[in-house]
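Listing S7. Sequence submitted for prediction.
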Amino acid sequence: MTKTPESTKRAIAHGNYVRGSASKVRRVLDQIRGRSYRDALIMLEFMPYRSTDPITKVLRSAVANAEHNLGIDPSTLVISSAWANNGPVMKRYRPRAQGRAFSIKKQTCHISISVESVPSQTNVEVQN
């Protein structure tokens, strides 16, 4: 396991028992991982997936944790890691013809997003 430098501060937020499959949530998380907070919010607003609403809530919670608990400016935050794990499956049954029943599995997942502060690149001069 690698150690993070003391200068980087990290805040984490979790969303547990979110309705939706983990694989469908992961395809959205893969798009926002490594992006800045502002870019991720813009991307989530215009994506056509149902899972963007709970992801946005967890992302805003992580940023609020960073701002309130660690005193970090939200404009310097970057999504360092984001993942989704399977949660419990709710089992339901659908009545079918001739007394049969088909099973319906309603998936849930646990979403975790970690944000960390990255120093602003505007103050760093690029030498040619």
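Caption to Listing S7: primary sequence and predicted structure tokens for the chain studied. The mean pLDDT is 89. Residues 52-69 form the longest helix (18 residues).
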